[in-house]
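Lab notebook, bench 4. Still working through the backlog of constructs that have no structural model yet. Next entry is a single chain of 149 residues. Request: give me the structure tokens for it.
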Amino acid sequence: MSANSPTNTGFVAYGQNLDAVADVENWMRTFAFEHAVGNWDSFGYRNQQNMFAYKPERGPVVDAHLDINIVFGGGTRGTPVATNDTVLEIDTADVAMNAIYNTPACRRAYWAGVGGIANGVFINANADPVMDSRFEAFEASDVHVTRRT
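Model written out:
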């Protein structure tokens, strides 16, 4: 079973097969994070790169962040990639990624990840103290930043 061979199994069987080799919850929550912060240069978003997968000796494959410099102005969007024009913004040419996002269990895990972010770290009471302390640290270090409100 491979995420690159989603055809001829149906979404339920495909989801079960994928879940047997990958930590789908981890993958989808990681994808939700990448979308939430706008890191389009990552696996599970539109560029399918800058991530790594790890297969522990006893456990499913997990996905982890590699870099996030695009979010901080470390690149340009370049030539547009054809996307599915939804909030998911995934490469329409990537058959495997489309199959993952269209598998109901995967999609539920993704939206659960988005909900956890929206109702957790993105709440002002949670995010503002962290962001304010970073801003103050930049100011104290003579790193000139502009406060956005």
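Notes after review: The chain has two domains: 10-118, 124-149. The CA atoms of residues 42 and 48 lie 5 Å apart. Flag for follow-up if needed.
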